[in-house]
Give the backbone structure.
Amino acid sequence: MRDQALFDKIDLHLIRVLHTVLTERSVSRAALRLGMHQPAVSAALRRLRELAGDPLLVRSGAGMVPTDAGLRMVGPASSILRGAEVLFSDARGFDPQTATQTFRLAASDYLDPRFLPQLVAQLKAQAPLTRIEIHPLSADSNYHLHLAQGEIDVVIGNWLRPPGELHRGELFADDVVCLVARDHPAVRRGWTEPDWLEAEHIAPTPTHPGALGVIDEHLAVLGLGRNITARCAHFGLIPAIVASSLLVLTTGRQFCERYVERLPLKILDCPIAFPQLTYYQLWHERSHASAAAKWLRARIRAVAQSLRAE
């Protein structure tokens, strides 16, 4: 009887406040994200603490952190909110013109720099009432878990061996090339495999300690290693770094071509043969049959194909 009485005191709005406060780890940031006044969020948090019999969020230094009980609530709260979001929309079918849900994407910045701007423009043009969240694929990004819990709808990136337990759709494949400054010595004299391996390379910061990107994974298979002397967590800044140095960036041709148009850069063939970079979108079984998710994946595929055709 007590459990039923407790359940009757919980509404969807309270679950949304719970999830937002715990993920933002701040009452003030949660208020901004929810479009609420801070005192109203504080009042809702007091109710949640009473219901849980736990403080849920406690101060730690200059910030706040969830308690163990609070952390255990993040996943279930996310599932409840995502389930509520599609409860009736999928039953009615998905109408982009009237849909009000939130699309959440995690994307690698190794993508064509025009991809995300064009995707957001299309989503907002065709589904103007929806909200869009774009999350990075970073060192602390457990995208398997985020997809499973409904915190992310789609992950977009490239993998030599994409995870088999997730659904995937190929977006496009791209040749591996090298990007160098226009006055790099290799532009004049060319290079051999040893020259390329010994040159100073710049590479993205690993997503986790010991992780290899697709370029270095393939080199490891060949028993080779390159001379990486610089790393950068912001892939979109690397072409500007290359343009003013003797560093070499090895990545997809389509990404490089966008920067050659506006920076003093040159694309060179790589003296080592690499398999093509294949870009995918990944999603979880939980959203596989969703009408809204199918629509989103179709838009992603259409934008990728349009950029490849340019």
Remarks:
- The chain has a mean pLDDT of 88.
- Residues 67 and 234 are 32 Å apart (CA to CA).
- The longest strand covers residues 167-174.
- The chain has three domains: 2-72, 88-171+278-308, 176-275.
